């Protein structure tokens, strides 16, 4: 009896095992079918999406979402801002807004601060003007060094490079400069009429990098200057940190393309078509802080058709004292107390 009961139990267990195995096999088969079906559906979906993408691409439509586009645009803007800040920081380190010694000092003694650096804007083919200025008011050789030592005034002709760099024009200026030692040759500035404002900007950047002075002046090469009178005027303004001195003027903005003084950006000056107040271009002086401002912001300062308007525009939004000095108004004849005369 016990043996038969044991056999029945064994038979029952075997039957249960076979049923369990069968159920597991059925479940595995169903799972396989389900997974295969999902994979087939995914494959169909991918094929559909690829087909749609190719259609959109062929039609010139972007496959990137609006959100993704905005993210990319914002990232690019941040990169641009970072690049600008890096350039401004590098310029600030170079141009005096952080501690710096000027070239040639080597950290031995404090560099002497001069009163004035004068840049006489000249160009190719103006040798007669240059010689006339040397004879009239711009000393050379030993007298030039004495002018620096006794009065703290540095005077140099300023010129850019020929558009055909290294041609006879460049070589002629290089030869003359080696003999007279009174030229600033701006290597990265093309000498051209339409580049006047950029040339003046380049001069200020060069000057503040090489000389520590209270003031910096721009003069045309058809103007005679009384350096003693100029030095006297500037000495009275040493207490002003940001000053822009000149013969202040305004004037009509000409929108006609055929006009001699045409201003392409005439519409920016309003319906009245009148320039803001600015110093006449024959001669003007700005303090060191303003030259440093120009140097640091060199990449973003806008220029206009006329160099004197361009310079004046850079100071419109700044806390700058504009000094309308009649002694800077150059007439064709010397007048009592004047610092300049136009030729």
From TrEMBL:
Family under the similarity heading: Belongs to the glycosyltransferase 31 family.
Name this protein carries in UniProt: Hexosyltransferase
PANTHER family cross-referenced by the UniProt entry: BETA-1,3-N-ACETYLGLUCOSAMINYLTRANSFERASE, HEXOSYLTRANSFERASE
Source organism superkingdom: Eukaryota
Subcellular location(s) per record: Golgi apparatus membrane
UniProt GO cellular component terms: Golgi membrane
Major localisation: Golgi
Membrane topology: Single-pass type II membrane protein
Keyword Kinase: no
Gene source species: Glycine soja
